[in-house]
Design the sequence.
């Protein structure tokens, strides 16, 4: 078996396990955010009346690697999508279409979905005591003094909240697109050949851990998650068609899974102060788990989920709208249920069922109308004339242009 991670070989077999893992990863994200309602020590936009530290110990199983896995999958998907189009014009058209697909739901989220979270958050903090309609009218005024302490958004107080992934995904896509064009230039190909380095799977893992540690030590705040996310997305893009990498996942499955369990136990024991670890040891263990967690999930999915199912495409098509809707749904449900004091078990059940039910109901309604589908990131179902398609793309481009300008400049 080749031991070079820089040799890319053609892979014509579809990775169904990547599709399954994408669905599972975003489903896990929804449950994770529900758990954040009950976490006493981790910051979130809203909190339930009932919080339990035990929840945090369980969530530490997912916390280090959950978003990095999504980024890696996004990189793999981007590679397969970009490789389907050739030539500068077709690739530029692809980027334009993907920009509309990503930024239109983000635009809807910024102005219609995320404000629900801000209303609940400000209400719980005692900043406001008004109806949502009164709040929303004030929200539309970007200079309103009510939001003087909420100025971290794309526009004043218009924040991305959980939709930061869409913002960063679009920005990262542009970077990878530029790389894909430059990589085809003869001078760049010559440089790649000249500095070519053979990497084993263990070396790749070590380099990624070092990259996570450097980001953690030298960056602050959101910059850590942004840089870490791009590193995993770009890694996924580069390794999407690398047969040695996918074979190595299978070869090291037991090592990865055993390491994952041991690292998780260490993290939990240290978090509960059962283990007294120096900070640099804790940081190293945590960031190692970030990489090991991604690879462990990939190897398990490759082993057990590499099959096609008739409903897989449907599940993948609703991932996007569920992601856009879920956090506002669960926060508003918790906000509405808090005064009733149903108790943690009943409340958790109602929020869980209500969140999934609300996302499903809204998605099903939107899916019935082609004109609404793009606003939640769902592909249009019917076929239309070239002129109508062109008009739709022009309209979409005009709608996202102010947002794209804000995100670039």
Sequence:
């Amino acid at each position: 078996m080749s031991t070079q991670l820089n040799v890319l070989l053609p892979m014509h077999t579809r990775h169904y396990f990547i599709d399954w893992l994408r669905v599972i990863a975003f489903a896990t994200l929804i449950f994770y955010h529900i758990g954040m309602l009950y976490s006493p020590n981790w910051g979130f936009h809203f909190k339930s009346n009932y919080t339990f530290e035990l929840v945090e110990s369980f969530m530490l199983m997912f916390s280090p690697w959950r978003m990095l896995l999504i980024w890696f999958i996004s990189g793999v998907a981007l590679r397969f999508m970009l490789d389907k189009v050739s030539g500068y014009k077709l690739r530029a058209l692809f980027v334009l279409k993907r920009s509309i697909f990503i930024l239109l739901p983000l635009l809807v989220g910024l102005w219609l979905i995320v404000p629900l979270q801000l209303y609940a958050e400000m209400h719980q903090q005692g900043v406001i005591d008004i109806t949502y309609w009164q709040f929303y009218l004030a929200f539309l005024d970007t200079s309103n003094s009510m939001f003087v302490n909420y100025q971290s958004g794309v526009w004043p107080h218009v924040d991305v909240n959980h939709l930061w992934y869409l913002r960063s995904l679009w920005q990262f896509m542009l970077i990878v697109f530029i790389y894909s064009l430059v990589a085809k230039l003869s001078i760049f190909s010559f440089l790649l050949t000249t500095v070519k380095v053979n990497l084993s799977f263990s070396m790749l893992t070590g380099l990624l851990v070092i990259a996570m540690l450097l980001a953690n030590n030298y960056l602050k705040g959101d910059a850590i998650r942004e840089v870490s996310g791009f590193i995993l997305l770009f890694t996924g893009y580069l390794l999407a068609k690398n047969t040695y990498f996918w074979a190595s996942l299978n070869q090291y499955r037991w090592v990865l899974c055993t390491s994952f369990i041991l690292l998780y136990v260490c993290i939990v024991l240290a978090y509960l102060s059962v283990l007294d670890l120096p900070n640099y040891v804790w940081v190293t263990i945590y960031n190692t788990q970030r990489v090991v967690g991604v690879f462990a999930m990939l190897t398990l999915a490759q082993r057990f989920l590499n099959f096609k199912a008739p409903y897989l495409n449907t599940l993948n098509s609703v991932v996007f709208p569920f992601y856009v809707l879920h956090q506002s749904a669960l926060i508003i449900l918790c906000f509405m249920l808090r005064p009733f004091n149903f108790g943690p078990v009943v409340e958790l059940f109602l929020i869980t069922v209500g969140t999934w039910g609300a996302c499903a109901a809204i998605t099903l309604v939107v899916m019935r109308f082609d004109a609404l589908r793009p606003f939640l990131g769902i592909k249009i179902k019917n076929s239309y004339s070239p002129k109508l398609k062109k008009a739709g793309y022009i309209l979409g481009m005009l709608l996202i242009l102010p947002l794209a300008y804000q995100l670039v400049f």
